[in-house]
UniProtKB/TrEMBL annotation:
It is an enzyme of class 4 (lyase). Substrate binds at residues 80-82, 116-117. Homohexamer; trimer of dimers. Its EC number is 4.6.1.17. This is Cyclic pyranopterin monophosphate synthase. Belongs to the MoaC family.
Amino acid sequence: MSDTPAPPELTHFVAGQPRMVDVTGKAATHREASAEAWVVLPPEARAALESGTNKKGDPLMVARLAGLAGSKRTADLITLCHPIPVTGAQVDVSLEPGGVHIVATVRTQAPTGVEMEALTAVTVAALNVYDMLKAASKAIEIQGVRLLSKSGGKSGDYRRSD
């Protein structure tokens, strides 16, 4: 007899085959999730951002708008993700000493959560920062994409503790 706990059930697989989880019988409840990402900028990319001379526009504003759009298009990008109504989304993008910090919070009233929408929002925003600044440096790095918190649903609330 082993003291090793059984691995958690992966709901997107049945008998080893991928599937979209059936949420037909689940009640629509208020759900919210927040995620973050960092875009680490080499000195030349940071200087280009701070100069305000990007011909494409303000990289932080473009990233904010792209993150909002990304939150609404998640089901088009994540294969087994349900299309859900995004009832609210906020994407904050700021220039910090460590680079560009992106935080997204997404809300819905649905039978499934919005973690993937929050994670997609910060990732799409980060990719747009890269796109806007890649002429200054190809060494830009996207790091630390992670879920910060989620609330609602059968699995309950989660808050990252570190």
